[in-house]
Specification:
A hairpin with a 2-residue loop joins strand 20 and strand 21. The chain has 3 domains: 4-42 and 53-63, no CATH class; 76-380, Beta Barrel (Catalase HpII,  Chain A, domain 1); 539-690, Class I glutamine amidotransferase (GATase) domain (Rossmann fold, 3-Layer(aba) Sandwich). The protein is built from 20 helices and 21 strands. The longest helix is centred in the middle third of the chain and has 17 residues, at 352-368. With 703 residues, the chain is of the alpha/beta class. Helix 13 (481-494) packs antiparallel against helix 14. Bound molecules: CIS-heme D hydroxychlorin gamma-spirolactone 17R, 18S. Residues 70-73, 76, 111, 113, 130, 132, 145-147, 152, 157, 160, 220, 302, 335, 337, 353, 356-357, 360-361, 364 line the site of CIS-heme D hydroxychlorin gamma-spirolactone 17R, 18S. CIS-heme D hydroxychlorin gamma-spirolactone 17R, 18S binds at residues 70-73, 76, 111, 113, 130, 132, 145-147, 152, 157, 160, 220, 302, 335, 337, 353, 356-357, 360-361, 364.
């Protein structure tokens, strides 16, 4: 049954797919075209004729190829996959079949995105990432339109245009692109205290993910599950990546933005093409309605998390992404998410941010996709049957038959008729509401700092250093002094020492009054709290040159592959490099077309001549030093260790000896050829699994 649903979605998409292979070029009217390289002219050098219907149609269509990009989250990447619950335990709380029936595999489309940049901006900017999932359930489409950060900048949706205007490029000169490091963003922060918790996350490593496959996702708002008895339970949704949560370092991000602006997109695409399907676990935090007021924050306030130590995240099921789209525009660009796309068993709360989103997402599709029929675009089509009395409008592609287009009717035999809850109709949760009509933020929304402090207190030492550096970088780009000062004043309410460290870096006075830190922490907030044990899909550059140890290189590559890593052989030139021993080694890429920032680790292969060549090559030396500087595992075997020495990354105690030595993420062995020890690959993959060697940060480059 589960397979049937997935097949059905696949068949639906295939039915509308246009495969251009082996077909004749035609006009849109289906007339075959004999020539498309020259316009119809009166004589070889004469004027172009108006009657050239093919040229006019071709150019007119081209003129209209662009549609408005999303006002936020313009840049993204998408993929298809499926979701399946592990078992039925959540059935006590919700009637949503796709969350509670383990025999049902629900097809999904997921779109990841950055927020502030335009469609053509770079992937590795400091920003929140969107994590939007469309579940094509049998009861209709459910969209979980989340982010990789569990809180938001503002509490009420009416502030969203203000916030987005502040973070987007400044209106007079449209600078800077895809960055929060500018005056208007920090002006907004300085004046809007509620931003502070999210700003802490934005300055943290969460805002520079290594991969879409290695980031968490959050529904952010408190939603409501509703069970068969109509009883509600508050819920927060979490996605946890199987590969662990990992980030880049800031210097690396800025370089990747130039070396490969599509870094995160490419990573997702390549992993799926290679069959390394990314996976996440869906988890929920549940809060019984009776406990609505049991917390020291308001569950309706989207600037707050529920600490996992207070309410554990309980696993529900598994998401797998296993198919890339066929056409970026048709699918990833035209997918239309909407927070109000809910199915029976899931309902809203009165979170004022969520309420505004329930208006905005439908409205934005009208302008972006040009009318009210966007749900008919293949990527948006439900697998559930659709029968409405809605008719006509731009881009109507459904040919409705019969005379009925109203309810109630007799002409259509009363169809389509309304269903009851027993026939899977959506019934709104009957929440009681009363109150005066007012414009006022609830008093329960007024604590803007406690959780920002909680986040800061929960960070490990390297994570804290990154936050300080990020604040200094961002505020260092702010040109107006009073904006720097008011930002520092805000930071002072989070943690005095943090504000002092930031103030020092940007040349303003620290806050005069010292606010007391409450001292509480939530260990689950640190990315380093749950280390991963897999090096799967980690990219490793293996540096070689003519004269390389062919046997050792082949063995290193094989051992790394067996452990799930993705080694690539890099040499000063493409083709093959001549081996001093064993077979010649095929080269995957020329060093100068790549960069250490595009890899998770680097190995320098043995071969005295090869190493001499590499040592004289600025690219190779820089490659190693830069990888080291970004705290990546660096390894060498045989004469390869000498290059690590030349690059200045061998500390005392590393290198030498027959065994395998690991010092601060530098893995070395003097053994080479077929004798290259398995332990060399084991230690290197351990280091890759740990992602980065953070202790280097405090200790610097070895003397
Ligand atoms: Fe969005 N947001 N948003 N947002 N959002 C859009 O919808 C909006 C918010 C998020 O891959 C837009 O189709 C308002 C929070 C994602 O297609 C727009 C408010 C969260 C995506 C819109 C918010 C998000 C969007 C732009 C404040 C995390 C990309 C294009 C009330 C929980 C979806 C579009 C995709 C996109 C409005 C706040 C996540 C304009 C008014 C909080 C992942 O409708």
């Amino acid at each position: 049954m589960a397979d049937e649903r997935a097949d059905e979605k696949q068949a639906q998409l295939e039915a509308v797919r246009v495969d251009d292979a082996d077909t004749y070029l035609t006009t849109q009217q289906g007339v075959r075209v004999d020539h498309t390289d020259d316009a119809l002219t009166a004589g070889a050098r004469g004027p172009t004729l108006l009657e050239d219907f093919h040229a006019r149609e071709k150019i007119t269509h081209f003129d209209h190829e662009r549609i408005p990009e999303r006002v936020v989250h313009a840049r993204g990447a998408g993929a298809y996959g499926h979701f399946q619950p592990y078992d039925g335990w959540l059935g006590e709380y919700t009637v949503a079949e796709f969350l509670t029936d383990p025999s049902v595999e629900t097809p999904v489309f997921v779109r990841f995105s950055t927020v502030a940049g335009s469609r053509g901006s770079a992937d590795t900017v400091r920003d929140v990432r969107g994590f939007a999932t469309k579940f094509y359930t049998r009861q209709g489409n459910y969209d979980l339109v989340g982010n990789n950060i569990p809180v938001f900048f503002i509490q009420d949706g009416i502030k969203f245009p203000d916030f987005v205007h502040a973070v987007k490029p400044e209106p007079d000169n449209e600078i800077p692109q895809a960055q929060s490091a500018h005056d208007t963003f920090w002006d907004f922060v300085g004046l809007q205290a509620e931003t502070m918790h999210m700003v802490m996350w934005l300055m943290s490593d969460r805002a520079i993910p290594r991969s879409y496959r290695m980031m968490q996702g959050f529904g952010v708002h408190t939603f409501r599950l509703v069970n068969a008895n109509g009883e509600g339970t508050f819920v927060k949704f979490h996605w946890k990546p199987k590969l662990g949560t990992h980030s880049l370092v800031w210097d690396e991000c800025q370089k990747i933005a130039g070396k490969d602006p599509d870094y995160n997109r490419r990573d997702l695409w390549d992993a799926i093409e290679a069959g390394d399907f990314p996976e996440w676990e869906l988890g929920v935090q549940l809060v019984p309605e009776k406990d609505e007021f049991a917390f020291d924050f308001d569950l309706l306030d989207a600037t707050k998390i529920i600490p996992e130590e207070q309410v554990p995240v309980r696993p529900v099921g598994r998401l797998v992404l296993d198919r890339n789209p066929d056409n970026f525009f048709a699918e990833t660009e035209q997918v239309a998410f909407h927070t109000a796309n809910v199915v029976p068993g899931i309902d809203f709360t009165n979170d004022p941010l969520l309420q505004a989103r329930n208006f905005s997402y439908l409205d934005t599709q009208l302008i972006r996709l040009g009318g009210p029929n966007f749900a008919q675009i293949p990527v948006n089509r439900p697998i559930a049957d659709v029968h409405t009395n809605q008719r006509d409008g731009y881009h109507q592609s459904r040919v409705n038959t019969g005379k009925q287009s109203y309810h109630k009717n007799t002409v259509g035999g009363g169809c389509p008729m309304v269903a009851g809850a027993d026939h899977a109709a959506f019934t709104h949760y009957a929440e009681k509401v009363e109150g005066a009509k007012i414009r006022k933020r609830s008093d329960s929304f007024q604590d803007h700092y406690s959780q920002a402090t909680l986040f800061w207190n929960s960070m490990s030492e390297p994570e804290r250093e990154h936050i300080v550096a990020a604040f200094r970088f961002e505020l260092g780009k702010v040109t107006q002094r009073h904006i720097r000062e008011s930002a520092v004043a805000r930071i002072g309410h989070v943690d005095h020492d943090l504000a002092v460290a930031v103030a020092e870096g940007i040349g303003v006075d620290p806050p005069k009054e010292e606010t007391t830190n409450h001292g509480r922490s939530s260990p689950a907030l640190s990315q380093l709290e749950a280390p991963t044990d897999t090096a799967a899909t980690r990219k490793v550059a293996v540096l070689v040159a003519d004269g390389v140890d062919g046997d050792g290189t082949r063995r290193a590559v094989e051992l790394l592959r067996e452990r799930g890593a993705l080694p690539e052989v890099l040499a000063p030139h493409e083709g093959v490099v001549a081996a001093a021993q064993g077979d010649d080694v095929p080269v995957d890429r020329a060093i100068n077309t790549m960069s250490s920032v595009l890899y998770d680790g680097v190995v320098v292969a043995c071969g005295p001549d090869a190493v001499r060549t590499l040592a004289g090559d600025g690219y190779a030396l820089h490659f190693v030093t830069e990888a080291y500087k970004h705290h990546k595992p660096v390894a060498g075997f045989g004469a390869g260790v000498d290059l690590l020495g030349a690059a200045g990354v061998l500390g005392s105690g590393s290198g030498g000896g027959d065994g395998v030595n690991v010092t601060k993420g530098v893995v070395t062995t003097s053994t080479a050829g077929d004798a290259l020890p398995v332990e060399f690959a084991d230690r290197l993959t351990d280091e890759l699994a740990h992602h980065r060697c953070w202790s280097r940060e405090t200790d610097g480059i070895p003397a």
